[in-house]
Amino acid sequence: MAYNSSTTIDDSRSGYSTQNSTFYSKRTPIPLPPNTSLNITTFISSRPHKTSTAFIDASNGRHLSYSDLWSSVDSLSFSLSSIYGVRKGHVILILSPNSLSFPIICLSVMSLGALITTTNPLNTSREIAKQVADSNPYLAFTTPELAHKLAGCKTSVVLIGDNSRNEKLSGLNVITTLDEMMMMNKGGEKVVMMKERVCQNDDAALLYSSGTTGASKGVISSHRNMIAMVQTIIGRFKLDDDYQRSGDGGGANGHTFICTVPMFHIYGLVAFATGLLAAGATVVVLPKFEMNDLLLAIAKYKVSYFPLVPPILVAMVNHADQIKKHYDLSSLRTVLSGGAPLGKELIEGFVEKFPNVVIMQGYGLTESTAIGASTDCLEESRRYGTAGLLSPSIEAKIVDPESGKALGVNQTGYFNNHEATVSTLTSDGWLKTGDVCYIDEDGFLFVVDRLKELIKYKGYQVPPAELEALLLTHPEVADVAVIPFPDKEVGQFPMAYVVKKAGSNLSENEVMDFVAKQVAPYKKIRRVAFIDSVPKNASGKILRKDLINMATSSSKL
Questions:
Q1: Helix-strand-coil split of the chain, %, nearest 5
Q2: Radius of gyration for the alpha carbons in the chain, expressed in angstroms and rounded
Q3: 255-295 per-position pLDDT tens digit
Q4: Which helix (H) or strand (E) holds 373?
Q5: SS3 letters for 279-312?
Q6: Domain 16-30+366-450 fold
Q7: CATH number of 40-233+263-280
Q8: Rounded to whole angstroms, how far apart are CA atoms 470 and 480?
């Protein structure tokens, strides 16, 4: 367990200590590298690679070998530092869908001690401008198709792809392309570059996490955070174990992952853009999600590990017969679900339809650099509704959300995670996750509610307060409350309860259209109801549970 030798664990079954009211992970601890002068890129590149192929682009079949990957990282690092003046502490923005270029940029930037910051390609120009203003990036990497979303920003832009000048690029300071940058040191000579020393405690990434106030907040992860999480991922999937490789990409007996998770997300960045490389795995990259393309890629590249969100799992169970008829998924060993706990019906339905595939689950957040708890086998996942055991070296407290008093086994309260970065911290260093949870007698974490009130749409986080603030700018809206409406296909979607101003004839469609024009597609309001007043408590806080009960009660709709 991850505890100091002076700590007394009263209950080894749950991992709880009454000495400090803390739950300790029951997983085997994973020690950090003793060399503190180590950055995430050096840590990954120094490990042995068990296959020659690092990435495969499923859209065009292009393979990127490990040797070409590290050659590209070195070339880009040289150009960024020696020609374009990128220094330790600079922030570099990447606005791009999943691609083979994404990890090259991230690894190069972090090797220099600069911070990578990512943004969702679905975000609007308005949403991206807020992040640019907050993070003040030194450079921005983006594709020609997305470049217009940076129009008006003063940041110098590097294009990922063709450097064609077209109308979409007006108002941008495009200085070069990624290809041109990497060609600046392709003469074959070994260039000695004077890099600033980058240590484990230095900052590596600045990622943005949704908050209850509606304002997206930057979360800093250190190289130490990322190295720790990479080691957790390697240990979770036993990727350091010897295996017999079948084919160049790992084959049915190897470690081949398919990346449906967006690389701009903390999990996608730590696992698929960087971390799995430390185990020599092969990552099949999908630039965008489309079910047919996904299943074809699993079959073609003999994918063994498939991360997904619950709506995809639901679709696989509901259409299992057709899927098995048209796609060869015999190589698939494991599916990894995140975003929401899985219920008994869904787990057993999947096991029945795909008996040779193990279901794992995970729970985490940007502030904890991804995985905070997980189920690592079917037996653990069959503790229905759990998020799993605490990850290695993770410590947690469950506290009463009102008094802050620490709670014990099977007592429901606010979940604090000690192994985290500098965001939403208590005075004694605990991260407040925004979840109402309990840990049972066997150490399994259960998430029962969200104090943060974030809506989970297909795994994306939607803060109600952001949509409420936007709707309050409508001239015919007097008050509004946004809630999560449960949906079997997408998990939850945003629903708005609107109070119209006197004399207004505002319609449901007008409300939805007003929001849709100003936010990313996953944030759209998809249901509207008009009410006389928004229920609030004495302090003025919206009583969302009352509205959720109203929305889900057929007699009141």
A1: 30, 25, 45
A2: 24
A3: 899 998 899 988 889 999 988 999 899 999 999 888 999 99
A4: strand 370-375
A5: HCCEEEECCCCCHHHHHHHHHHCCCCEEEECHHH
A6: Luciferase; domain 3 (2.30.38)
A7: 3.40.50.12780
A8: 10
* 3-state class (DSSP) for residue 385: coil
Mention every residue, 6+ apart, whose C-beta is less than 8 A from residue 302.
246, 247, 249, 250, 251, 252, 254, 256, 331
Neighbouring C-alpha atoms within 13 Å toward the C-beta of 233: 31
Domain ranges of the chain: 16-30+366-450, 40-233+263-280, 455-556
List beta partners, residue 217.
209
Under a CB-based contact definition with an 8 Å cutoff, are residues 303 and 276 in contact? no
* C-alpha distances out from residue 345 to 143, 234, 333, 352, 552, Å: 42, 30, 21, 10, 20
CATH 3.30.300.30 fits 455-556, yes or no: yes
DSSP 59-98: TT--EEEHHHHHHHHHHHHHIIIIIT---TT-EEEEE--S
| Distance from chain centroid for Cα 102 | 15
Q: How far apart are CA 206 and CA 547, in angstroms?
A: 35
Q: Are 1 and 418 in contact (CB under 8 A)?
A: no
Mean per-residue pLDDT of the chain:
86
What residue has token string 């806080």? Answer: 541
As a whole number, mean pLDDT of residues 374-402 equals 91
